[in-house]
Hints:
This protein is an all-alpha fold. Helices cover 89% and strands 0% of the residues. The longest helix is centred in the middle third of the chain and has 56 residues, at 25-80.
Amino acid sequence: MKKFMGLLATGLLFSGLTLVGQETAKDDAKKAGQDAKDAGKSSGRAAKNAGKSVAKGTKKGVNKAAGATENGAAKVKDKTSTTKD
């Protein structure tokens, strides 16, 4: 009788473990959907950060070019200005 109960308990234990570990196709579909959603959010964040970097670089370049233009204009003005004394 003890041997039978031991085998029964072992059988129940193994059958319980296999039932808990099984995933259905519906679970797989949910996981795939969530993974796609997470990937989309990550891509969006990456694009946003890239856009901010491009904007910062563009602003820096424009300001640098404007400063150079201003300096060049000042040099031209100095060379072309005629003063009558």
